[in-house]
Amino acid sequence: MLKRLFLLPALAAALVTACTSPDTAVRLPILGERDVRPRADGGPADTVFARVPAFRLTNQAGEVITNQTFAGKAYIADFFFATCPGICPKMQGELLKVYAKYGKDPRLAFLSHTIDPAHDSIPVLRDYADRLGMGAARNWHFATTGAKGEPAAKDSVFLLARAYYTAAEPDKQAPGGFAHNGTFALVDDQGHIRGLYDSLNPKEVERLMAELPILLAEMDTRKPAVARQ
Amino acid sequence: MRLKFRFLLSCSVLAVSLPACFSSNKNQGERLYTQHCSSCHGDQGQGLARLIPPLAGADYLALHRAELPCLLRNGQNEPIVVNGIRYHNVMPGEKGMSPAQLTNLLNYIENNWGNKSKPRTIREVEEQLAACK
Fold first, then answer.
1. Taking 60 as the threshold, does the pLDDT of residue B20 lie above it?
2. Residue among B39, B50, B92 minimizing CB distance to A90
3. pLDDT at position A43
4. In this structure, is residue B66 part of a structural domain?
5. Which range is the signal sequence, renumbered to this chain (chain A) (predicted)?
6. Phi, psi of A115 (to 5 degrees)
7. Superfamily classification of domain A54-228
8. For chain B, what is the domain count?
9. A202 lies within 8 A of chain B by CB
């Protein structure tokens, strides 16, 4: 099972490298399915790229977090749980490195979803953020689908994980009771996933560090010239 | 027991020199650390912020030397203080590790990343394990 989970980011990575030969690496690919829609006026068909679905979460400060929270920003998403004895410490440690380098950039945010909403209440998430040294951070959200004890919270976070190409599911055999992989998903200012990185592989984290500025530069070209002055 | 036997076996069957046996034993500590500990305590024993205490340069190792075999075997979830910082989290126990494995593992973490300490013997570790609460 786990092996299969680990294949996902590898596959995605293969896709990415296939799309970005060194000389065309100026633009990151848009991952996911695309839809070609003929236009009613007979003009060239529109290509519609997959986006992260609508979500509504609550962060460690009790604030509601939706897609709108990240409008105009890139963000890095991952999935963890506070008591995770397996890969989470390593994964969050790697994201901490990315934060140390890019955390001050106003164009970027961080979103860690708990896959154990039954245990990870808002106070637990706040304590976790605090202990990770992120107590004062406003741009790294530790968020839950189940702030009010919603019975479907678990299902909704697993669905969301799938949308970010992260495999997460309950598994009695796995340490801590959940099997998941440590994928970082890089999402652009329009909700498209632009990169997937296996956080357990240092080379992949390096790739994220290298690709992030490429995306930020692309986003700058979308800003109106006035805003850029 | 089985491990000791295997250890002897590997030494005699391979008919390699003694130093090779010692070094493979030293590697066992490192191997165990990589497999069972590094995901939490880090490749360099650095720990993770205030979630997971470091092993590199941790005052806890010397201050609680005699208790460490039991800590590794039974895990730890009472709040503890390492280098003046209070941690309160869960470390799972390693019930399946033999005294020999625990000895090699402890010798590894106590003499790596700048740590220095008197080597432990299996005998010593066995006695400490017998006194686990």
1. no
2. B39
3. 84
4. yes
5. 1-25
6. -95, 10
7. Glutaredoxin (3.40.30.10)
8. 1
9. no
Q: Are B91 and B75 in contact (CB under 8 A)?
A: yes
Task: Provide the CATH number for the domain around residue B30.
Answer: 1.10.760.10
Whether residue A156 is predicted with pLDDT greater than 70 in this model: the reply is yes
Name residue B101's amino acid.
Answer: Q
**Is the complex ipTM more than 0.90?**
no
In this structure, what token pair is assigned to residue B14?
């391979």
φ and ψ at residue A213, rounded to 5 degrees? -60, -30
Q: Would you say residue B4 lies in a domain?
A: no
Task: Please report whether residue B13 resides in a domain.
Answer: no
Greater confidence (A42 vs B128) lies with B128
The alpha helices in chain A, defined as continuous H runs, are: 2-19, 88-102, 122-131, 153-163, 202-222, 225-228
- pLDDT tens across A199-229, in order? 999 999 999 999 999 999 999 999 876 554 4
Residues B69-88 have pLDDT tens digits of 999 999 998 999 999 999 99
For residue B16, being part of any structural domain is answered with no
- Determine the 3-state secondary structure of A40 from DSSP: coil
Whether A137 and chain B come into contact, CB under 8 Å, resolves to no
Contact B40 A85 (CB under 8 A): yes
Rounded to the nearest 10 degrees, the angle between the axes of helix A2-19 and helix A202-222 is 50
Q: Which of residues 117-136 of A touch B (CB under 8 A)?
A: 128, 130-133
* Closest of A16, A36, A32 to residue A24, by C-alpha: A16
Q: What is the mean pLDDT of residues B43-63?
A: 96
Pick left, alpha or beta for residue B15 (phi over 0 → left; psi -120 to 50 → alpha; otherwise beta): left
pLDDT of residue A137: 92
What mean pLDDT is predicted for residues B19-23? 41
Burial of B102-124, coded b for 16+ CB within 10 Å and e otherwise, reads: bbbbbbbbbebbebeeeebebeb
Structure tokens at B40: 């939490």
